[in-house]
Amino acid sequence: MTLAVMSVNRTTANSPSGSNSISNLLSIWNFDKGIHTDQNGFYNHFKARSSTVDLYLTNKIFRGKSGRSMKIAYDKQNDGFCGVWFHLFDDENISLKNKFLDISKYRYLSFWVKGQKGGENFSIQMADPSWLQREDSKSSGYATNYLPSGITTDWQEIVVPYKDFNLYNTHASCLVLNFTIAGQGTVYIDDINFKSSQNTRVPTSLQTAKTKIKRKPPAKAMWVWDIHSLLKDKHYQDNFFSFCDTKAVTELFLQIPYKFENDLTKDVQCIIQQSMNLRSFIKRASSKKMLIHALDGYPEFVLREHHPRVLAQVRAIIDFNKKSSENEQFYGIHLDNEPYQLLGFEGPASRQILKQYLELNEKVMTLLKKRKSSIVYGVDIPFWFDESFNDDGTPTYSLEFNGKVQDVSKHIIDIVDNVGIMDYRNFAGGADGIIRHGLGELDYAEKVGKQIYIGVETFRYKPTTVSFILAASDQESKMPITSRFENFPVRVIKSDRLKLIGLAKPLDLENSDVFDAGLIKAHEQFGLNQTELIKNKEKYKSTVLETISADDRYDGVDFFNLSASENQESYPIGFDTTEIMLEKITFAGRSIEHLEDVLNEAAYIFEDYQYFRGFAIHFYETYKAMSTTWPKE
Asked: What is the pTM of this model?
C-alpha cells in the first residue's frame, strides 16, 4: 500500500564549532530529532530467512552529553542476511529533480560507532542512483578496516574515503550497514556526516535534543476478550491484576458478556450477563485507578440491518451504569467492528459498507447524547485507511459523508470521542514502522481535538489452510456482504488480472466434506464457468502462481478440482495455500523488553501530540505469554 505524506519533526544539522566551517560538513543525521535523515529520507531494516535485526532510536546511549543514537541489535545466521539502510534523498517528495546528494566536495563518509561488548563488525556499503535502481550497493569493506583496534565499547569515528566504494557517480543515494558475519551483537551509530577533509572535526550535540513537554504519562490500555474466566475464577483474576500492576496497565477494553432477545427485530434487546460479577470486577479495577471500556465487535455489525443490535448494546451499557455505583461503572464503550473483513469490501460495495459503518458510529454518538450519558465512545480502525491510494493518486477509502469528502479515518475521528489505531508493526521507526503509520491520524486528531490510542499486536495465529476459487468479476453484485460463507471465514485477493475468493479451513475441523461442500457452493455462486476454465486453465494457473508468490501472507499453491469426474478433462477449480501471519505485524515470539523499548521510542515522537492518549496492547493472554529475553545472550 502507498504511504501517506505526513508532517514530522525535521532533523537539524550539527552546529560546528572551533575552526570548522559549515561547508566542511554535510550532515546526514545525528538522530537527535525526528524520524528522517536530514535529507528527509527514510531508513529501515532489511532481513531474510533465519537472520534478523532490530533498530531503535534510543536516548539512553549517545555520543556527547545529550541526544539520541541508533541502536542496532542483530542476529546473523549462516543463512539469510540483515542490516539497515538510510536514504540520502527526500522520500516525501519523490518527484523532485536533482534530489540526490552531490558530494563531490565531500570526499569522506564519517560516522561514529560503539559496541555493546566490543568485537562487532559489519560491511559499509553505498549506492549511487544506478545501484539504488538495482536495489543494491557496493561495499568499501568492513568497519574494522577503518578501526585499528576494531569496534570497542567506546565511541570511535569511522572515516571512509568515498573512492573506496568504487562508485563513479558522486551523487550518493543510500548508505547501508550490512551484517554479513554470523553472530549476535549490538552496536550504536551516531553522527553520520560527509566531510571535505579526513581531519574535519565532528562536534557533539551541544544542548538537549528535545524539550520535553510536561504532560500526563501516556495511558496503557489492553484488550481483554476472555471475560468468563476473569469474572468467575478468583485465582485467575488475582493473577490478572498482578500482571496489570507489573505492566502499569491503566485502561481495559473489556469484552462484555451479553445475549440478544428478540434478535434481528425492531424490538431487539441486549441483556448484560453476570452483572454482579461484572460490577465487582469493575469496582476492584477502579480501586487501582483503572478505567474500563465495554468492548465488543463483529464485522456484520457495521451493516445497516444490524445497527439495532449495536444500539441495543449501547442502551444496555447506559442502563448498567445507571444501576451501578460510581466505582462500578463503565468509563467508555469501545467497538472493534472491522468492515474490511466483509466479502464485497474489495469490490463496488466498499463505499456502501463504509457509509453504513460511519452511519452506525454517528447513531451511537447520537444515542449517548440523547440519553445524556457521560460514557466516552471509541472504535478501532486500521492504520492504512488514510494510506491507500488508487493508481490515479486519489485516496482509496475516501467518500462523502455529512457534506465532507475525506478518507474514512478522518470521518471516524470527526464522529467519535477516541480512536484506537491498529498500528500493527513490531518496530517503531523506519518507512514501515509504528511511528510513521500513526502520524497521519495523530496530525488530524490534533486539529479536531480527539484522542488517539496506538494499538500493537502480541497475538500470532497458526498457519492456516485457505482454499481459493477463481471468481468471476461479473458476480460482484451478487456476492453477499458477509465475513463468513457457509460458516467459514472468507478471504479475498484482488489483483489487476484476477479475483480470488477463499475460505479459511479451521485447524480443528473434523469433517472435510462440509468444508468441500462450502467450496463447491462458492464456485457455483461466484466462480468462473467451466468452459472458460478449461479454455484458459494454463493462463489462470500462471496468474495464480504469480499473484500468490507476490503476496507475503500466503505460501505455496496446490491446485485442486472438486467436481470433475474421471472422464472429464481436468481444470483448476481452485487451489490451496497456507496463510501465514507476517512477522512484522506482531510482537509474538519477542520479549516484553523489546516491546517496551519500541513503545518508548514511539512515545518519544507521539508525546509531542496533546491528543495522544497512549498505547493499547492486543491482548491480555498473549501479552502475558511473551518471553523475557530476546535475542539470546
From this structure: 0.91
